[in-house]
Design a protein that fits this description.
alpha/beta; Metallo-beta-lactamase, Chain A; Rossmann fold; 2 domains; seven-stranded mixed beta sheet; 19 strands
Length: 337
């Protein structure tokens, strides 16, 4: 049997023929990066390759790295291996990486969602022989509501808080989800304030031509009452901290796919939980895998054992790969921002 096109090493996913890694978690010479979240784009590599749209955030987060960029669908050949990047729908600039050699095709999906959120480049289905997939939300209980319904819920909660004199604080990842929520908010309700981590990312994305609603950065000299009826977007880890308490009477909420589980909603102790994720839900995972036509499926992070068994029951050659990817953390303090 021929050697596999991609292998799984202590450094990460590796292509021996092309001599490159994909989203490696230890320092390597050549790193192809699916997107800018910290569990996939790590420091220390000698060189990086990512999409044009992922590059600004990566430079913001990783500093002066040796980074080359590539357009969606553009092919590069390395030692006879053809590589191309295709939209993953996860966050702006996110990609699936397609690897082909002598007619054999593998796809590394990174993190992905199949529903178009109006902000990220929409997910593209790719045919392949082997598909490497996350399964962060690989249980049937995870089923996302339409985005306009979630927007109605959030804006309704915000309006109620504003009417009662409370500030609204909504926790969301600083890259991707915060900007997605920002585009869902109704600015007629009140001002939109942002934590520095969120606003720094906003600045980067605006600088590359992504249109976002107006926001006001929260600064140390912010005074209570200066922004009546405001909503504040902040990383989940900021909820319940002295930073959040300076807004006075407030109602806080958390936007996460994990809010679909009542036990986690209770443990997070937020006033409201909104089921919003930039990862595929159960049906999204299954539809993405079906559409690849692949027979071999490798699951990397999430409900790996349960999802692998399910895929085997559906007739796939399914295997678990241990990686350092985190997906969407159930604990806000562990968020891969």
């Amino acid at each position: 049997m021929a050697d596999p096109l991609l292998t799984f090493t202590d450094e990460g996913i590796y292509c021996p023929q092309g001599d490159f890694h994909i989203d490696p978690w230890r320092p390597v010479d050549r790193a192809l990066i699916t997107h800018g979240h910290a569990d996939h784009a790590r420091p220390g590599h000698q060189s990086y390759l990512a999409t044009h749209a992922a590059a600004p955030v990566m430079r913001h987060r990783l500093g002066d790295i040796r980074l080359e960029t590539i357009g969606y669908g553009e092919a590069r050949v390395q030692n006879g291996v053809s590589v191309s990047f295709h939209p993953a729908g996860h966050v702006p600039g996110s990609a699936q990486i397609r690897v082909e050699h002598r007619g054999e095709v593998w796809v590394v999906s990174g993190d992905y969602k199949v529903v178009n959120d109006g902000l990220s480049e929409p997910f593209e289905s790719l045919r392949c022989h082997a598909f490497i997939s996350e399964c962060t939300f690989g249980l049937p209980v995870f089923k996302w509501q339409p985005q306009d319904e979630i927007a109605r819920q959030i804006n309704g909660w915000w309006a109620e808080n504003a009417a009662s004199g409370k500030t609204t604080i909504l926790g969301a990842y600083a890259l991707g989800k915060a900007q997605r929520l920002l585009c869902m908010l109704d600015p007629a309700i009140g001002p939109i304030l942002t934590h520095g981590a969120v606003e720094n990312t906003n600045v980067v994305l605006r600088g590359q031509g992504i249109t976002l609603p107006d926001t006001t950065l929260v600064t140390p000299d912010l005074k209570r009452g200066n922004h009546p009826g405001a909503i504040v977007l902040a990383p989940p880890s900021a909820l319940g901290t002295p930073w959040a308490r300076k807004f006075g009477p407030a109602s806080d909420g958390l936007a996460s796919g994990w809010m679909a589980l009542r036990g986690i909603r209770r443990r997070r102790a937020a006033d409201r939980g909104f089921v919003v994720s930039d990862h595929a839900d159960w049906e999204g995972l299954n539809s993405a895998i079906r559409n690849t036509g692949a027979e071999r499926i490798f699951v990397t992070h999430g409900y790996t054992e349960i999802f692998r068994r399910w895929l085997e029951e559906q007739g796939y050659d399914a295997r678990i790969v241990q990686t350092a990817y985190e997906g969407e953390a159930a604990d806000p303090a562990e968020a891969p921002e």
